[in-house]
């Protein structure tokens, strides 16, 4: 198993303990100067900005306490700052509850990144081990493959409604609508086949070309 500490062993390390306040409540908390902050999202960043985002405040399918160590002490900040390479929390944009986003400097963690296809989505998986050698991971959808199908279906339903109305419709207009429907149906089936054949390798090729 890997350890989260990827820096010089002689370098001073600061603990960050993410914990559950209730067994049935997944959201994690962090304490800064004796004040608990409920987390909303967890970001890993470098000097250029956010690299990976965990849209949940916990890791894995079910939440558990996480023990981390970083090279700088965690702070509460009022605005995002990527220049100091320190862990910090900032008020999140959650508008129905008071929560905070946690920002962690990516260089303090040995992250492994992989990609998987789940149905019609390409998922990015990020994982690492905390100081107790617990596997911490989270997944993010980086490409949704059904968007083109949705757009084709919207067009199909629109033309289908045109035919159903039959108001002031000439024979030529009716035949044109039928032809359009057939073309959209064929396009829909081709797109279904494209989705079935799309692979993680196709996605990686796309992002490398951009």
Report on this model:
The chain has 210 residues and is α+β, with helices and mostly antiparallel strands. It folds into two domains: 131 residues, no CATH class; 58 residues. The protein contains three helices and eleven strands, in the order βββββββββββααα. Helix 1 packs antiparallel against helix 2. It is elongated, with a radius of gyration of 24 Å. The two termini are 34 Å apart.
Low-pLDDT windows of residues: none
Q: Indicate the radius of gyration in whole angstroms.
A: 24 Å
Distance between the amino and carboxyl termini: 34 Å
Percent helix range: 25-40%
Please give the oligomerization state of what you see: single chain
Largest sheet: 8 strands, mixed
Overall 3D shape: elongated
String of helices and strands: EEEEEEEEEEEHHH
Q: Indicate how many domains the architecture comprises.
A: 2
Note the total helix count: 3
- The count of strands amounts to 11
From the helix content, strand content and strand pairing, which structural class follows?
alpha+beta
